[in-house]
Design brief:
By secondary structure, the protein is of the alpha/beta class. The protein is built from twelve helices and eight strands. β3, α5 and β4 form a beta-alpha-beta unit. It starts with 16 loop residues before the first strand and ends with a helix. The chain binds the ligand C=CC1=C(C)c2cc3[nH]c(cc4nc(cc5[nH]c(cc1n2)c(C)c5CCC(=O)O)C(CCC(=O)O)=C4C)c(C)c3C=C and fe (ii) ion (FE2) (2 copies). One fe (ii) ion (FE2) binds next to α10.
Length: 376
């Protein structure tokens, strides 16, 4: 059956609101089979690899999934935390902290988290929320900069899930927040705190964003522009001297041209030009992950130092910094404004439904249930 059956008793239930933090996804374990499973799902997404199936499939299954999982598993092993993959650990902690903050403010909202690839699976999380009576669901993809390969593909999953529902819940999602004042302030606080503990500033502040194929910009993806927007606002917030900020793109995948300048070659070039110390931040990631902890803090560090640099300082992602949790709380509140449990005007435990209506629904549902049982 295309549409799931909808128990009639739900009609009489009071409305409930849920927030879902969404991130990319990560392997279950730092071993080759788990990484292969994860990469197979990720790299089969046509939003991520825009190459015709007929050409991409033999490359993915014949070469990439035979070679990359073992190499990537070793990298994952080098950054794995006691509780799991850093990306999952930080995303869960952010969801827990957001839930606590909303509860402390008297809001009656469920906060959970899901991944686009791997577990917890987004469609399964949405099934669970609906089954537990959530009539209003807000999605918060945690990518500050909109990108078809990240934000849009997560929204696609939610849209496909909606297409299977007879009784659809209210659904909203956060598209991007590249210029959000709270997010920029949280990044600036992270950098200032780092400078304070170091007692000095690097000669350059390198802002490294995840890369994308260069054609995505030509085809109209706003990702590149949004990365520069974030970088400009952060530069302004920190009142950096002209020429101090450097924007780069990391994590190139495959041989095609990606957005430039590339992070590691830029660091090597800076060292060659006599720059001895750099601070590096990855503003496009709000949770530390393999791309920041291994690729930047290990590989890029090594390349910069090998090229003559003497001080490489990696500034951790926002993770569970209080300024970021404040910003995330504000973003969440904007998404659920006016919804049940949000404590904002228009909201209420019985929004859109009077007590009389609810009683009638309950009576109809009871009659339906009785006639269903009688007919069996
Ligand atoms: C922050 C935004 C991201 C964009 C844009 C993005 C595009 C993109 N990524 C790949 C290929 C890989 N990315 C990998 C890891 C990874 N990517 C992001 C975020 C963005 N990706 C995150 C948060 C992570 C970390 C996941 C984790 O488990 O920690 C990987 C896997 C790691 C590896 O094997 O190197 C690949 C592969 C492409 C092709 C792409 C756009 C076309
Ligand atoms: Fe990626
Ligand atoms: Fe990488």
């Amino acid at each position: 059956m295309r549409f799931a059956p909808e128990p009639a008793y739900r009609h009489g239930q009071p409305p409930r609101t849920a927030l879902v933090l969404i991130n990319l996804g990560t392997p279950d374990a730092p071993d080759t089979p788990s990484v292969r499973r994860y990469l197979a799902e990720f790299l089969s997404d046509p939003r991520v690899i825009e190459i015709p199936r007929l050409i991409w499939w033999p490359v993915l299954h014949g070469i990439i999934l035979r070679v990359r999982p073992r190499k990537s598993a070793a990298k994952y092993a080098s950054i794995w935390m006691e509780e799991g993959s850093p990306l999952a650990v930080w995303t869960k902690r952010q969801a827990d902290a957001l839930g606590e903050r909303l509860t402390a403010q008297g809001q009656d909202v469920t906060v959970t988290w899901a991944m686009r690839y791997g577990k917890p699976n987004l469609a399964t999380v949405l099934d669970g929320l609906k089954a537990s009576g959530h009539s209003h669901i807000a999605l918060l993809p945690l990518y500050p900069q909109y990108c078809a390969a990240t934000t849009a593909t997560a929204v696609d999953v939610a849209a496909a899930w909606l297409s299977r529902q007879r009784h659809q819940p209210h659904l909203r999602w956060l598209r991007d927040y590249a210029g959000d004042a709270g997010y920029i302030a949280a990044l600036a606080a992270r950098v200032r705190a780092h400078w304070a503990t170091q007692g000095a500033r690097g000669e350059r502040l390198v802002m490294s964003f995840h890369g994308m194929p260069a054609f995505s910009l030509d085809k109209g993806d706003p990702y590149h522009c949004q990365c520069y927007k974030t970088a400009r606002l952060l530069e302004q917030a920190l009142e950096l001297a002209p020429g101090t900020a450097v924007v780069t793109f990391q994590s190139r995948f495959g041989r095609a041209k990606w957005l430039q300048p590339y992070t590691e070659p830029t660091l090597v070039k800076l060292a060659g030009q006599g720059v001895r110390s750099v601070d590096v931040i990855c503003p496009g990631f709000v949770a530390d992950c393999i791309e920041t902890l291994e690729e930047i803090n290990m590989e890029a560090r090594e390349a910069f130092l090998a090229a003559g640099g003497t001080h490489f300082a990696y500034i951790p992602c926002l993770n569970d910094s209080p300024e970021w949790l404040d910003a995330l709380t504000a973003l969440a509140q904007q998404q659920i404004a006016g919804w049940p449990g949000s404590g904002t005007p228009g909201a209420g435990p019985v929004a859109g439904e009077s007590a009389v209506q609810r009683e009638r629904h309950a009576a109809v549902a009871a009659a339906l249930a009785a006639s269903n049982t009688a007919g069996r």
